[in-house]
Amino acid sequence: MENSYDLLVVGGGINGAGIARDAAGRGLSVLLVEKGDLAGATSSSSSKLIHGGLRYLEQYEFRLVAEALAEREVLLKIAAHLVWPARFVMPHVPGLRPRWMIRAGLFLYDHLARRASLPGSKAIRLDAPPYNAGLKPQLKYGFIYSDCRVDDARLVVANAMDARDRGVRVLTRTECATARREQGRWRAKLSSGEGIEARAIVNAAGPWVKTVLNGHLSQPSRDEVRLVKGSHIVLPRLYDGEHAFILQNDDRRVIFMIPYGDFHTLVGTTDISVAGAYAHPEASAEEVEYMCRAVNRYLARPARPQDVVWKYSGVRPLYDDGTSDPSAVTRDYTLRVDDEAGQAPVLSVFGGKITTYRRLAEHAMEKLAPYFAGLKPAWTHRTPLPGSDFGGVPRVEARDAFFGGHPHIAEATLRPIFRRHGAQAQAVIGDGDLGEDFGAGLTEREVRYFVEHEWAQTAEDVLWRRTKAGLLMSPAQRERVAKVLGSP
Length: 488
What we know:
The protein is built from 13 helices and 20 strands. The protein is of the alpha+beta class. Helix 1 (14-25) packs across helix 7 (357-368).
């Protein structure tokens, strides 16, 4: 049957895209539906980090931290153009966590998983270059450790592209309207009017996981999701250097301060419980003030709410473990399978974080394996994502060769193209005729590539998810992109 699939995946965030890719590589036929744009919600609103979660050690989340640290090494290899190492500085403030506690935590962080490519932690002085840049002079001591940064939305797109290359049908702006079990299979109706069949469903709808499960699939469930809003702000660069900061706040939470491009600093995040699916979360004035106040404990020149050039929020769909403090709710994931007489299962994803999406996908396939005889073994840990296979050449050498092959194109244009597409950058620019220059290194040729190959439809898709060019553009430049695409 033409519209019959082994697996229907609902949700085009990082978990849905990761599961669709994994399933296709194991031999399943897969349909992925996303009601908006890929990474259109939580998966493009993260802190842009691949990290073990140092603060989770205080909550005794040792399994989660160990898995995340191991995944950090995997993603450095398979997503080499989207994940890159960073050093994080933690200033010590007397009266908060004692130095012995921080040392012990960093020792665990260094040793909970094998660390092959990143340097370990150590104590440092903060009253001399380079780590004193931007800090108050009374800060004398601190620690430095390793984690990674990531382009979160592009990581989702890369997984979706690889899934498509392996036969997955990817439909954006398409919702699974209803689905019912009939004769041991799921029969679903899409918002487009198309009817499809599937042997199993993966519900990776993020903040809407309960809505899909109880409403669209008519599947009862006792599991609850805890929706926690996390907001971020972007300010003009607050300090010199490529290192990031993890800052202790007086409420025992931590705030990240991370270089964001060449001209900005990203600050986040908050933890605020919210009700409903919260389709369009926004950073409140109180959250902006909270983040500015938190970093100003450390900065020589205060960050002010009026200096914020961009802010965004995402809603984390955490598994409700009954914890009253939103910051203490587990960031681990729960995968729940419900079936009918051993047939037509639905696997629902509660919780999770971008760092562990690949292992979450593997665990999802392990839970679905009893329903699919002859399923192929795990494979994603060793196979690069599109753009990250440089044929054994170091990424820096591949970048320099790409630059050298196009002397007539400004490096300011080539650099962001390579950063976004990696080994596929040549396919993006083709014969080098890039067409109109929209500003911020974004050209007509690349916009056309986003539309033809990466499911982009609107200016928001292009300017804030496929790229972050919108941050560097004037209103007139952004309006020009919207006009070309015919949609804001």
